[in-house]
Amino acid sequence: MARIAGVNIPTAKRVEIALQYIHGIGPKFAKDICAKVGIPTERRVHQLTDEEVLRIREVIDADYRVEGDLRRQVAMNIKRLMDMACYRGLRHRRNLPVRGQRTHTNARTRKGPAKPIAGKKK
């Protein structure tokens, strides 16, 4: 089992798909990495040599922000918005949708389960 950026990637899958198990690498970056290293995308992970896995690791470490670093950066960006007390920061602070979605109905994922309001009987 290949371990890249602290993630065990599945061995039976194609390299291009397996790289997407790493947080911060999507379809485009996976194709770019395969092209840089010179690995055909249809090869499976278990067919890779140790040298190819090492080259993939080096490319990811040098050129991409993944896993813990990426999560830390996103958390710091959200914290910065909250400290600034801008509109987006306030929405994050109140745990409401940030990007203009309606909240009168829907938004249950963000707001949590509906809370009954006492005294509202017909």
Name a few traits of the molecule:
single chain; Helicase, Ruva Protein, domain 3; elongated; 122 residues; two-stranded antiparallel sheet; mainly alpha; 30s ribosomal protein s13, domain 2
What do these coordinates show?
The chain has 122 residues and is mainly alpha-helical. It folds into 2 domains: 2-67, Helicase, Ruva Protein, domain 3 (Orthogonal Bundle); 85-111, 30s ribosomal protein s13, domain 2, CATH 4.10.910. Helix content is 48%, strand content 5%. It has 6 helices and 2 strands. Strands 1-2 form a two-stranded antiparallel sheet. Strand 1 and strand 2 (7-9) form a beta hairpin. Helix 2 crosses helix 3 (50-63) and helix 4 crosses helix 5 (87-93). The radius of gyration is 21 Å and the shape is elongated. The N and C termini lie far apart (62 Å). The model has no long low-confidence stretch (mean pLDDT 90).
